[in-house]
Structure formats: C-alpha cells, structure tokens
Amino acid sequence: MTGRLGDPLQRLLGPRTANPLAKLELHTVGDLVRHYPRRYAAPGRLTDLSSMVVGEHVTVMAQVRSATVREMRSRGGAMLQARVSDGHRDLSLTFFAKRSGVLRAHEARLVPGKVGLFTGTVGAYRGELQLTHPDYQIVGVDADDELAALVEASKPIPIYPASAAVPTWRIALAVRTVLDPLRPEDVPDPLPAPVRERRGLRTLHETLHDVHLPADDEEWRRGRHRLRYEEAFVLQAALARRRALVASQEAVARPGARGGQGILGAFDARLPFALTEGQREVGRQIAEDLAAPRPMQRLLQGEVGSGKTVVALRAMLQVVDSGGQAALLAPTEVLASQHLRTLRLLLGELAEEGMLGAAERATRVVLLTGSQSASARREALLEAASGGAGIVVGTHALLGEKVQFADLGLVVVDEQHRFGVEQRDALRAKAGTTPHLLVMTATPIPRTVAMTVFGDLEVSTLTQVPAGRAGVTTHVVPAGRPAWLERTWRRVREEVDAGHRVYVVCPRISADDAGRAGDDDADLVVDAPASRATAPDDDLLLPAAGAGGGEERRPLRAVEEVAAELAAMPALAGVTVGVLHGRLHPAEKEDVMNRFAAGQVQVLVSTTVIEVGVDVPAATVMVVLDADRFGLSQLHQLRGRVGRGSAPGLCLLVSDAPEGTDAELRVRTLAETTDGFRLATVDLELRREGDVLGASQSGAASSLRMLRVVRDADLIAQAREDAAALVAQDPDLGAWPQLRDAIELWLDPRREEFLDRT
Ligand code: ADP
Ligand code: MG
C-alpha cells in the first residue's frame, strides 16, 4: 500500500491505542479507515434492551436513571450500582473497587438523565440483566459552546465492530485521528474516475468521511452505497479478467462426428425418450462450446430430475467421437458407482467396446475410486492411460498423481462444491491443454449469486422436468405429537404394502455422537450450514434454537437408533429396514443401495448420504427427522429423491422447531413451495453472506464486507457491466493500477479459494 495509508498505527497513535487495535487486525492507517462502522446510532434513540442475550458482547445506547456508591460491609470494598434504561426496561451496571473514591468518578459522570453508550458482556444476576464493569461514554457533552454541542449531539454516532479490548468510541477516536490529516491524494481510489462519473459516485477520500464522520444519515448512506459498489466492482473486474484469461487459453476443439455418424448419433437413436426442449437447447450450446478451440466453462443447473445426466453424457460422447476422453467427477463413492451404472445402462451396447455383441461404434466406461481393489484400480488406470476408456467416472481419486489420461478433453463435475482451482490445475496437467469444463448443480442459483460466486462460468439452466413425474406433497409433522408420528409410520406401512420404497433421514449416525452432526463422509455436505455457529467441523447442523440461551433440547435422532426402533415397531412388522451412512464400508453401501433399489430393503434409514443424485424411482416417501436441523437446499435435495417415478411422492418433515425461529421458517417454506428458485432465495436471505460464499467456515471474516448478494442484485449487475466494459478495453488494466492493486488484495489465498470454488 502506498503513502500514508501504509503508515503503521503504532507510530501514529502510540502503543496504548495501537496494541488493542492490532488485536482486531488493524495495523495500518489503511486497515483502520477500511474498518467501517457496523451501524449508526441516532443520538436520541435508545437501544431496545429487550433484545439482549446473556453472554453476548453488546454496545447499547441508554439513559442513566440512577447511580449509587455503597460500601460493602461483608466483603469489604465498595460497589457502584447504576441503572440505565431504554424507557421500558432497565439494565443494571455494576462496578467494584477496593475504595469508594475510585467509584465516585464514575458516579460523577453517570448523572441521571444523561444518555450514554455502554459496552460489555451481558450477564444475569438474580434474574436481572447486567453489565459488570462496562466501558461507557456519555454522549454529546464535551463541546465547549452550546451551539457546537447541539450540532455534535445531532450527528449519527458510528458504532464499530468492536471487542472487549476496544470499545467503539476508542475506535471512532482513532479513526478521526488518522483520517483528519489524509489528503485526497493520499487515498488511492480503486474505482476509475469514468466509472465513478457514470454512476455518480464520490471519491474514496470523500467516502471515508461519509462513513466515518457523517453529518447526517444521508451522508453515511451514500458512503455505504459507494463502498458496496466498489466491492462489487473490484470482484467483477477480477472475474472479468479471469474470463478473459481463460478465453485466451487454447483447448482442443471437439466437434464430434460428422452428420450424426458417431456414438452420439447412435446414442440419440436408441434413447427410450425424447429429449425435452430444454435439454436440446442446452445441448446445442454445449456442442458449440466443445467445437471451439477455447476451453468451455459452463455451469449446468437444473432441478433434481431435470435430466442433466443425459445432457452431460451427450457432451461426453461428442468428445469421444472426436477422439478424446471425458472424466465424470462425483462427490462421493456412492454417487460415482451410481453414475457408472446409469451411464452403462443408458449406453447399453455402446459401452461394450471390444466385447461380443458390442455396437459397431462403441467405447468403454470405467470407474476409479479410492476404495476399489488394487486389481480393479490397476485395470481402470490402464484403461484411462491407454485411451481404452472413453469415459472415466470417479471421485477425487481421479485427481491422484498416478492417474493419466491418453487425451482428456472434457471434465464433468457433478455437484461442484469441492472442486477448486488446484483440482482444475491437476486435471489440466493430465490433459496437456486445458480441458473443457462442465459443472452440474441441482441447487438453483439466483442470477446474482451465479454472477458473484460462479462469475467466470457461463450458466445454462434446465427449467423443465421431463413429463410423467407425479410430483411431491410436503407436510410438516410436529415431533412432539405421538399420534402424528404414529400416523406417519402407518403411512409408511401403506406405501411399502403398495410396493413402494421409503427413505427415513436422520441428522446423526449413532446415539453416542454427542449431539453433533452425523456423517464422516464430509464430501456429502453440499449445503453450507445456514448457521450462526462457529464450530468449524460441525458442517451439517444448525445451532439449537436456544443456543446461548441455555434452553435444553432433546438429543437428535440417530440412524442406528431409529432403524432399531422401526425394526421393532408392530406397525412395520415384516418390513425390512436397511441402514446407510458414511461410516459403512463402500461395499456395504453399494449392497444396501442395490437391495433398496431391488425392493429387498423397503425402508432405508440414512444420513444425508442420499442427498444428491441417488435415483430409485420406486421410492415414494421421504421422512426427514429433525428436519429443522438441515439447510433449505439440503431439504429440497432430499425431497427430490421421491416422486421421480409415476407414483406421487410424499415428503414428511418431522420437526419441533419453535414458531418464529429461522429453523421453523425453513421447514415451513419447504412445505409451502417446490419452486427451487424461490427456496434458494429464501435460503440466501436466512444465511449470513459468508456462509453463502463459503468463506466463513473457519470463522474468518466474510469476503464480502458490505455487499449482500440478494439485496444488492441491481448494483452487482451494474458493476458487472462496468467491469466487463473496462476489461474489454484494457485487459491488463494498465491504465488503472489502483484497481489492479485492489484486485490483488482481493486475491489473497483465502479469497482465491472463494473465487475458484467452481
Ligand atoms: P438430474 O441429473 O438432473 O437429477 P437425471 O439426468 O438423473 O436428472 O434424470 C432423471 C431421470 O429422468 C432419469 O431416469 C433419466 O433417464 C430420465 N430422463 C432424462 N431426460 C428425460 C426425458 N427427456 N424424458 C424422460 N425421462 C428423462
Ligand atoms: Mg443426476
């Protein structure tokens, strides 16, 4: 960083002020002026004290009602007890000292009627909320003359993200100290002047004054707006450059065989159904991409069951027809095996090259996973390296060093969430040139999220679901009502008797898993938790509704326990109950899935292992226990497992989430709609942005500080347009070094990961 923004706070403010700031990772002037207020308090408006939660660190604005110093006879020493109020509710403040003299100073400042900011950790004493030794500042008194005091007292008060070590007003004071001497030329602006002019935005120097020292609400609002725009713009410029970079890379064109002569033509001819209009249209786009000498970078989104697999297979066959190979990367072994089966089934004799009865033009499909036997693996490796296999299906084992391809032309990634830049590089290394990339996702992605999170991919969407699907009805079952649960299991029985299959999903594997999330197979977690939880490895679960409030909740249902209960239940006598979760051996998983598909197991109790892609058309009922503990898109995916055949599906969400909680809202929303797009939007609104963007798993600050992908949709679209225009004119951004610096700053390793999550 240049000039004065790079100056160390230590030198400017001295260690007493700078050391606590360093704990907030604020080391330079630049860090500090970019530490924006979280909100603004209106001087007259008091904080609603009823929203305080024990254990939270808070800053509240309240009015002093009383303050009294007392000697403590029993313990010795003295105590100051003050009461502050929001007009309805009181909060007590307590200070202790050896001698009462120390406390007199506080008493002198805590004059009844004065308003102040009070900060501390909320505790409870004898049923009353209190702050012990709070830090505080009386508002609007220190100006010398009355007029100045009046003006000062009417300004919005910035409230900074603070900590116990540095209250917000110390930060405010420090910011003012470093901001005052900064001149416009000391503050390089990442937003190019033409862009600022076009959008009517102020310079960064002006904006810092707007957000840190606003004279009125109007000022901080316009400051915030400009910072949001800047964030969107820098991100979009980074993405535009990446797109330009990829577009400048070479790939092998894979136009396929002429005139429908190849395997693809034969495949189309033997498909037992007609492609939907959507499948044809998306197929055309992809065929065109593959035929170009630039790497395709495409995201294919579509509801569960919308027929993405067929589209992907057709793309793979076009590449095979051009003499190349395709790799299909699945998130789990269960899914990889299932993809292998599906592809072989769809291809029939087209996948039996070299065997008796194979079609004239054919290829081979092989499976490569971490857990297969040494000999199976050796054979698969050979097939991939020799080019014998046109299609290689696998898990991340495909990325291993030993895996070589003869001519890898296309990588298809099913459910992209764990496919980052290193993986792409690993595959590129195997391919010689950059392979074409097709990412499939069943999670509907609102447009602006696609532009932000998947900004370097073109997006295709399958909106239709193939005809002949009966659909799913969804109900919420209150967990606390035995009669309802009984009816649930009776219903399960009826479906089994009708020849159908039933899933029962639980959040945990076994009852000893101490209340935490269930599946070792971390790959399976598709949905970042919609949680405010900080436990980094607690991937699956949301915090209990009463978390922090000390409210007891019954333990979560577990697969093993529920399976035993169902097996012993008279209502289900004679029904075979199977178990599926990530701790089983892959061969066991495979076996139980096969038996479930074949009908030897009729009720499958499982974790979210079955969340993605598993296809058993005879399955009609999905019972989700503790449904409120799953994310919305996770539930939507689970529901997509049933109603795939001609019989109507039923989804029963068993939940005891208290009314009015986010958890209850998730479950209720799911029951109200099957519109995946609407669900994705609600989901986004319920989550913190960091969760959406996958950046806050480790508790690190969200990559986007000001921007909200849903709320700021229009602004993101504008920024994207401006950034694309700028990069088209000047791909290296040579004329805009300050923007380049800002992008570089963005692309620190953690953020790089975020950009490359595809
Ligand atoms: P997705 O991967 O999008 O969840 P699939 O590709 O697995 O969906 O398709 C779901 C089911 O629908 C499969 O059994 C598939 O064979 C079938 N299917 C795909 N396209 C069509 C179509 N156009 N008409 C009828 N059935 C189809
Ligand atoms: Mg699928």
Summarize the structure.
The protein is α/β, with parallel strands linked by helices and 758 residues long. It is globular and about 100 Å long.
Explained architecture:
Among the domains are: 43-155, Nucleic acid-binding proteins (OB fold (Dihydrolipoamide Acetyltransferase, E2P)), CATH 2.40.50; 472-673, Rossmann fold (3-Layer(aba) Sandwich). The longest helix has 32 residues, at 217-248. It is built from 26 helices and 21 strands. It is 38% helix and 17% strand. It is an alpha/beta fold. Residues 515-552, 689-703 and 749-758 have low confidence and may be disordered. Bound molecules: adenosine-5'-diphosphate and magnesium ion. Magnesium ion binds at residues 308-309, 613.
Oligomer state of the chains in this structure = single chain
The CATH topology label of the domain at 472-673 is: Rossmann fold
Q: Tell me the major beta sheet.
A: 7 strands, parallel
| Strand order in the sheet with the most strands | 11-12-10-13-14-9-15
User: What is the fourth-level CATH superfamily of the domain at 472-673?
Assistant: P-loop containing nucleotide triphosphate hydrolases
Q: Please identify the structural class as seen in this structure.
A: alpha/beta
Q: Count of helical segments?
A: 26
What is the rounded distance between the termini?
Answer: 30 Å
- Would you report the number of β strands? 21
Q: What's the CATH architecture of the domain at 472-673?
A: 3-Layer(aba) Sandwich
Summed over residues and divided by their number, the pLDDT gives a mean of 82
